[in-house]
Design brief:
Chain B: It holds the Pfam family BPD_transp_1. Chain B: It is a multi-pass membrane protein. Chain B: It is found in: Cell membrane. Chain B: Keywords: Cell membrane, Membrane, Transmembrane, Transmembrane helix, Transport. Chain B: This is sn-glycerol 3-phosphate transport system permease protein. The complex is a heterodimer of chains A (about 290) and B (about 270). The radius of gyration of chain A is 24 Å and the shape is flat. Chain A has a single domain (about 55-290), classed as MetI-like (MetI-like fold, Orthogonal Bundle). Helices cover about 75% and strands about 0% of the residues of chain A. Chain A starts with a helix and ends with a helix. Chain A has helices at about 5-40, 55-65, 65-95, 105-115, 120-130, 135-140, 155-185, 185-195, 200-210, 210-230, 230-235, 250-255, 260-294. With about 290 residues, chain A is mainly α. With about 270 residues, chain B is mainly alpha-helical. Chain B has 2 domains: about 1-55; about 65-270, MetI-like (MetI-like fold, Orthogonal Bundle). Chain B starts with 7 loop residues before the first helix and ends with a helix. The model of chain B has no long low-confidence stretch (mean pLDDT about 85). Classes of the chains: A mainly alpha (about 290), B mainly alpha (about 270). At the A-B interface, helix 1, helix 3, helix 4, helix 5 and helix 7 of A face helix 1, helix 3, helix 4, helix 5 and helix 10 of B.
Chain lengths: ~290, ~270
């Protein structure tokens, strides 16, 4: 202990870290703790200051049908977007990893949605879904179907949002699979060909298991995205009709900035933080596994 | 690779790959169609329809897109410069110094990868309002400047730089900071470029937090301006909305088409490490 090297390490280490640490504490750690504390208090008004109410906000949340609705929506949204976009991403990566006429153009086509803002994407897709004049209606009309208000119908609205999200995200996940495919040893494929393995068999028995670490990584990203990405709702549905397409983070936004109930918004945020913490635990277990593969 | 024969099944795959590509480009192709044709053709597809730039002119005059561009440009530049500076210092500390509490501090940094500022909108709004920063470009950028992702990425890169280089520089009489500046930063250039591209595209596209914290034309970035412009209740017609949308995404889209390979590689690089 002691010595000039030791002192130097302490001083330089902390001095270098200080600027970033200050901002991280101010905008990540402090607000996380403050959110938890706020969830035990009532929302204050000018006349009534906020006071400690214990678990009242949580009791209210459990009775709140909208909370359960958005939570269920969010789960369906995750179930609807994640497996589909991951499956399409694998398929895309396999395609553009091989010799393919116009491969560069195809790869660009898959990836382009990723660089567009969700707001712009929603603006374009809004037209697809609009009744009568929308592209979807124009196509279904050819087949003799009636006009349908895709985003105005509680039965179809969430599916519409899911389809758009898959379109936006599949190309992004493709990139990770492409990187993984390019790092697989070439000998494997040659051995498979010598053994006369069909492409299908080879994929399921060799490629897919070797892509497992990437799949874990992509899955975690996809789950996080399904909870934090709500931009499109502002354009497409505003969570409606009747909260049929609202998601947890969008509801938090509404409660905090439309209904001005900061305490209840904090309570809902605590639920979101718990869900993210759960994913974090999954992430570190998954990353452990990833290391074992190496 | 060369031994893949073009069997019928193979052709099916090629056609499949192309069809998905067409499907993936369709929304953009439609946006271009509607934006470059008169409004009466926005929903009617006629190859002989006349081309026009009228929609772009109308969109430009109906919303202060010029101002939104300046705001977004300022925002993205400010965030990137601050991120590069703060993350470099922190990453260097984590990669090269042994100090008390280092592992705990690193774990606390990584926590931000899970709890992004968009989740903490309620408390962060309160903080900004206490600081008197609501409706400023600084307030949009501040929560993102200490990027855990950037710190992590740079730390990984710095760790791969051999100790000998550092020792050699020290013998030459370099100070601690000039070692960082002359040895580490130049060698990490590919990481800086990758992180820069990811950061620029992320903040150019970011929406929820800028929406909450801004409320005037002089601070609003493009995404928020576009959302107000394109909202159904604003009563603007399709051709003009698509023209506005293309205006807003044009710089990033053009950059992407020009530097496609770098974009794709930077996302790969940023994701895997």
């Amino acid at each position: 202990m002691g010595g000039p090297r030791f002192i130097k390490n302490q001083v330089y280490g902390w001095l270098l870290l200080m600027p970033a640490a200050t901002l991280l504490v101010a905008f990540t750690h402090y607000p996380a703790v403050a959110t938890l504390l706020q969830s035990f208090f009532s929302s204050g008004t000018a006349r009534r200051p906020s006071k400690f109410v214990g678990l009242d906000n949580y009791a209210y949340m459990l009775e709140d049908p909208v909370f359960w609705k958005v939570l269920t929506n969010n789960l369906w949204y995750a179930v609807g977007t994640i497996p589909t976009s991951v499956a399409i991403a694998i398929l895309m990566a396999l395609w553009v990893n091989e010799r393919l006429p116009l491969r560069g153009v195809v790869r660009m086509a898959y990836f382009t949605p990723t660089v567009l803002p969700m707001i712009a994407v929603a603006n374009i897709w809004l037209f697809f879904y609009s009744p009568d004049i929308g592209l979807l209606d124009q196509v279904t009309r050819v087949f003799g179907f009636h006009s349908q208000n895709w985003l105005g119908d509680p039965d179809t609205v969430l599916a519409c949002i899911i389809v758009m999200t898959v379109w936006k995200e599949a190309g992004f996940f493709m990139i990770f699979y492409l990187a993984a495919l390019q790092s697989l040893p070439h000998e494997l494929e040659e051995a498979g060909r010598l053994e006369g393995a069909s492409r299908w068999y080879f994929f399921w028995r060799v490629t897919f298991p070797l892509l497992m670490p990437t799949t874990l990584f992509v899955l975690i990203n996809a789950v996080i995205n399904s909870f934090k990405l709500v931009d499109h709702l502002f354009i497409l549905t505003k969570g409606g009709p009747d909260n049929a397409s609202s998601l947890l983070l969008y509801y938090i936004y509404e409660v905090a900035f439309s209904f001005f109930d900061q305490s209840y918004a904090s309570t809902l945020t605590v639920v979101l933080l718990l869900l993210l913490a759960l994913i974090a635990v999954g992430k570190f277990t998954a990353l452990d596994k990833r290391i074992h593969y190496r | 690779m060369s031994a893949v024969r073009n069997t019928p099944g193979r052709w099916l795959e090629i056609i499949g790959a192309w069809m998905v590509a067409v499907l993936w480009l369709l929304p953009l192709v439609y946006a271009f169609w509607a934006a470059f044709h008169p409004p009466e053709y926005a929903t009617r597809f006629d190859l002989l329809a006349p081309l026009t730039l009228e929609n772009f002119a109308t969109a430009w005059s109906q919303a202060p897109f010029g101002r939104y561009f300046v705001n977004t440009f300022l925002l993205v530049t400010m965030i990137l410069i601050a991120q590069l500076f703060l993350c470099t210092l922190a990453a260097y500390a984590f990669a090269r110094y042994d100090f008390w509490g280092k592992n705990l501090a690193f774990a606390l940094v990584l926590l931000q990868l899970m709890i992004m500022p968009e989740v903490l909108i309620v408390e962060n709004y309160r903080t900004m309002s206490n600081l008197g920063l609501v409706d400023s470009i600084l307030a949009i950028g501040l929560p993102y400047m200490a990027s855990a992702f950037g710190i992590f990425l740079l730390r990984q890169t710095f760790k791969t730089i051999p100790k000998e280089l550092e020792d050699a520089a020290r013998i030459e009489g370099c100070s601690e900071i000039s070692i960082l500046w002359r040895v580490f930063v130049p060698l990490a250039k590919p990481t800086y470029i990758a992180f820069g591209l990811v950061s620029i595209s992320h903040h150019w596209n970011n929406f929820l937090w800028p929406l909450i914290i801004t409320n005037s034309v002089s601070t609003r970035p493009l995404t928020v301006g576009l959302a107000i412009f394109g909202a159904p209740e604003s009563g603007v017609d399709w051709s003009i909305i698509t023209a506005g949308t293309l205006l807003a995404v044009a710089p990033l889209l053009v950059a992407f088409l020009l530097f496609q390979r770098q974009f794709v590689q930077s996302f790969m690089h940023a994701g895997i490490k």
